[in-house]
Amino acid sequence: MKLLIVIFTVIIPTIYCLSDQEEWQQFKTQHGKTYRSLLEEKRRFDIFKSNIRMIDEHNQRFNNGEETFEMRMNQFGDISQEEFRQMMSLQENQIPDRGDNFALFEDNEELPKEVDWRAKGAVTTVKDQSLCGACWAFSAVGAIEGVIFLKNGILESLSVQNLIDCAGAAYDNEGCDGGLRTNAFNYVINRGVLTDKEYPYTSYTGKEGKCKKQGGVKISGYKDIPEGDEQALAKAIALIGPVSVGVDASHMQFYSTGVITKKSGCKNELGDLHHGVLVVAYSEEYWVIKNSWGSSWGEEGYFRLKRNDGNTCGVATRASYPTLD
């Protein structure tokens, strides 16, 4: 009996390690991961194992009704939570005073209980920014695509790469190292933006290129939503179209499905907004938001934030939409 016990205690950890190794190999294959050295791969494997444990523990709480959203492993599995936070490139804390450029809506304006611009054809497919920190450009372009569709009835993917390459230092943006959504709007006001077919996305490795050409469709301006005003945000979505916003996405690394609430730990102050996204829908309970981390992340590339819950993750702290004459 003693011999059996000894054998059992030796075999179980071995099986456990093999399971981790198998998951690691599958992860690397699925996401095309390679590393510079064996030492670097070991470090990434250790982070991967830690993330697996964290996801499992979170989902156990979710199954017990203690969390409001579920997690799953994804392309961010080999980076730490701190590294993930550092990937966020939105520079909302550098926004100057917004002055009086605020959207004005009638106080007695009745809103529909639900709005979803995806169902109305105003939203293009989910994109993947990959290693390029250009969420600011993806967010701005998404809002422009929507407002053009609502005026002309034509939906076409516009060029994020055009903004990354051309709306740089002259507009206080830094390409793949960050920028501001409103600065992107200013560029399109002055220079226009080409279609994705005319200027396709190439910054998957995190490097911007030289500005190849300019032109395309222009917007006439943009409007800001009063800070923290979720009712004004809902009015803009219902009456105008998809709205470009900044959020604190630091706790969304492994989001899979469900509604993110303040319980997640996300914050709503200006300095906490590091990721640009696009609000495309709302219900009485939540906002539906288009991300730029690929369609395999979250709910086919989207996530939900609790609505009217104290400005969850800063969804209404810095929100803007483009305008057309």
Automatic annotation (TrEMBL):
The keyword Disulfide bond applies. Residues 111-323 form the Peptidase C1A papain C-terminal domain. It comes from the Eukaryota. Keywords: Disulfide bond, Hydrolase, Protease, Signal, Thiol protease, Zymogen. GO terms for molecular function: cysteine-type peptidase activity. Residues 24-84 form the Cathepsin propeptide inhibitor domain. Residues 1-17 form the signal peptide. The keyword Disulfide bond applies. GO terms for biological process: proteolysis. SUPFAM superfamilies: Cysteine proteinases. Belongs to the peptidase C1 family. This is Uncharacterized protein. It comes from Acanthoscelides obtectus.
